[in-house]
Amino acid sequence: MGSDGEAGAVYDSVLDAVGATPLVRLRRIVPEGSAQVWVKTEWTSPGGSVKDRAALAMVLDAEESGALRPGGTIVEGTSGNTGIGLAMVAAARGYRAVFVVPDRTTAEKQALLRAYGAEVVRTPGLVPQDDPRHVRRLAGRIAAGTPGGWLADQYDNPANPGVHERTTGPEIWAQTGGRVTHLVAGVGTGGTLTGAGRYLRRHGVTVVAADPWTYRYGGGDGSPYHVEAVGHYLHPLTGTDTWPRVYDPAVHDRVERIGDGDSLRTVRSLARSEGLLVGGSSGTAVAAALRVAAEAGPDAVVVAVLPDSGRIYLSTYFDDDWLTRRGFLDAVAGPRVRDTVGPYAPGLLVAPATTTVAALLAALDRAGPGGAVPVVLPRETDAVTWSAPDVIGSVRPADLVGLRPDERVGAHAGPPPATVGHGESTAAAAARLDAAAVGRHDAVLVLVDGRAVTQVRRDRLGGRPA
Ligand SMILES: Cc1ncc(COP(=O)(O)O)c(C=O)c1O
Questions:
Q1: In this structure, are residues 421 and 324 in contact, taking their beta carbons and an 8 Å threshold?
Q2: Cβ neighbour number for residue 434 with a 10 Å cutoff
Q3: Residue 393's pLDDT is what?
Q4: Is the CB of 450 under 6 A from ligand 1?
Q5: How far is 8 from 33, CA to CA, in rounded Å?
Q6: Deepest in the core among 114, 304, 365, 407, taking most CB within 10 A?
Q7: What is the extent of the structural domain holding 173?
Q8: Is the dihedral of CA 153, 158, 161, 164 positive or negative?
Q9: What PANTHER family does its record include (predicted)?
Q10: 165 in the same domain as 131
């Protein structure tokens, strides 16, 4: 048992059990010579995540200010843990709750909100921020149009970082007896890092943000990644970029940028080697913490905040097939796709959807003859590049004939090519492609750590040519 664990605490309400989460030392995945690494187990909170703290604090704050009154309705635009936290608080304090979620939100997540008695309103996920159907806009309208409605607004609500400054930071300080030297946390709204970081900085602690590799907080190009709930990418359709008001970039000393492969392999070893079943953003935080710990040396004490449990990611991060098909894991038996493909070509020509026809034709001229060009989500520049982000479609040179030079290629993209993981067994990949009968392409994209790095002809994998 832990040092404090005789009989367990006794509470009047489930809400009293929010916060005061245990701190657990990592024993087996921290290399010799590194700093101690401890994790703040936020998933042990009754709603299952770090967001219980913010949810409860925002509600209490709104009750105090009179913005939320008895019989009122809590409204938020969220598909994630904040919704679950708010749904729990609403149930325990007798409020109605309405959540606006993007239509791609999994059935399980919607069911989780409804299980607490909340209402769920679905809206298209991929619309510009000024569209009335946009998640946050629609939530604002519902709150304004509902008598007694109150919008929680976690991205701009100061009670969100405030609770971490009042509780998470001081808890970490007390639990380490003031020995903590580094705090590492991911940034979603920025509430955790800004709040806990503010408190701990005042005590001389170095504050480190852990961010997915391409995300904006760490200076990336804004293309999306697989790890959910942390980081910030460019709006998929418009390329616009609005940072949450609660995130204060002045609080952290630096940002560690962590690739998906690193995050997800760390999640796997936390489960298999430490007995900690946690979500993807916890992998990002621990991967960054291990880096910091190696640098800081044995006298330092690093604390990473782990936001949620792995139970809601069993069909993704903990599914070996899911990982292998995306190039995160090798198949048990070979030969594998990368043995067949041989050394990768220098890069894969990709075009953001907002690239003009003229720019793509010029790039194709420079690159020499090739097949279809994968079309990717917009990002900071519309330039055709050689990197390998998220593929949403493809254009063949023939598709560009007769188009105006200033037209955007995204509007003329056909379906994306099929993908295979670089460590997938060649036989399994070929069988899967045959079964999927992906129409117009004679090439497939090869994924390494979730990102396309090259194309290969389908017949080289031994399947039927398209
Ligand atoms: C799983 C997970 N990780 C990390 C975060 C980021 O926390 P914050 O919003 O405090 O930055 C969230 C927030 O929703 C989350 O759900």
A1: yes
A2: 14
A3: 82
A4: no
A5: 35
A6: 304
A7: 14-46+160-313
A8: negative
A9: CYSTATHIONINE BETA-SYNTHASE (PTHR10314)
A10: no
CA-CA-CA-CA torsion for 425, 414, 135, 83, nearest 10 degrees? -10
20-78: pLDDT as tens digits: 999 999 999 999 999 999 999 999 999 999 999 999 999 999 999 999 999 999 999 98
Split into its structural domains, the chain has a count of 3
Beginning with the edge strand found earlier in the chain, give each strand of the sheet holding 182-186 in spatial order.
23-25, 36-41, 301-306, 182-186, 206-212, 254-258
Strands 373-376 and 391-395: antiparallel
* Ligand 1 close to Cβ of residue 229 (< 6 A): yes
HSE, side-chain direction, 13 A CA sphere, residue 71: 2
Q: How far is the CA of 400 from the centre of ligand 1 (A)?
A: 42
CA-to-CA distance for 67 and 148, rounded, in angstroms? Answer: 8
Active site residue 109: no
What single letter denotes the amino acid at residue 52? D
Task: Report the alpha-carbon distance of residue 204 to residue 301 in Å, rounded.
Answer: 13
Give tens-digit pLDDT for 345-364: 556 778 888 888 998 888 88
SS3 23: strand
Are both 145 and 167 inside the same structural domain?
Answer: no
47 lines ligand 1 (CB under 6 A): no
Distance CA 419, CA 388 (A): 13
**Could you tell me the two tokens for 232?**
């910030």
Cα 188 to ligand 1 centroid, rounded to whole Å: 5
Question: Could you tell me the two tokens for 153?
Answer: 């607004």
Catalytic residue, candidates 18, 36, 51, 280 = 51
Q: Report residue 403: phi and psi, to 5°.
A: -85, 155
C-alpha torsion angle, residues 272, 277, 282, 284 (rounded to 10): 30
